[in-house]
Amino acid sequence: VQLVESGGGLVQPGGSLRLSCVASGFTFSSYAMNWYRQAPGKERELVAAIGRGGFMTDYADSVKGRFTISRDDAKNTVYLQMNSLKFEDTAVYYCRASTSWGQGTQVTVSS
């Protein structure tokens, strides 16, 4: 199993980023997918989840209305569209499938 995140970077408050996670080594369409994040000195937290087929999604209260999770099973990829970014969104963002994790991608919101 391999999960590779990309799309992180430095963005100003109010800006947007789209994270991608490309999966391999398992039947992607059969798994729910999750995005987590971990800020310095804080525990890793679930940000967004999407079920098989993309019919069900769930979000942390802190990102509802600003972040959108989606998936493309043909590309074995899950996305996290992040809009209206805030300072407190700064963290390393991780993709997860079952018990497997990606290496993370850094998102820094700074003026």
For the termini, the CA-CA separation is 37 Å
Runs in which pLDDT lies below 50 for 5 or more consecutive residues are none
Order of helices and strands: EEEEEEEEEEE
Count every beta strand, where a strand is a DSSP E run of 2 or more residues: 11
- Based on secondary structure, the structural category is mainly beta
The DSSP helix count reads 0
- Summed over residues and divided by their number, the pLDDT gives a mean of 97
User: How much helicity do the residues have?
Assistant: under 10%
Shape: globular
Into which percentage range does the β-strand content fall?
A: over 45%
C-alpha-based Rg, rounded: 13 Å
Mind summarizing the main beta sheet? Answer: 7 strands, mixed
Structure write-up:
The chain is mostly beta strands and 111 residues long. Helices cover 0% and strands 51% of the residues. It contains no helices and eleven strands. The chain has strands at 2-6, 9-11, 17-24, 33-38, 45-50, 57-59, 67-72, 77-82, 91-97, 100-101, 105-109. Strands 2, 4, 5, 6, 9, 10 and 11 form a seven-stranded mixed β-sheet that branches. A four-stranded antiparallel β-sheet has the order 1-3-8-7, with no helix packed on it. The chain is globular, with a radius of gyration of 13 Å. The model has no long low-confidence stretch (mean pLDDT 97).
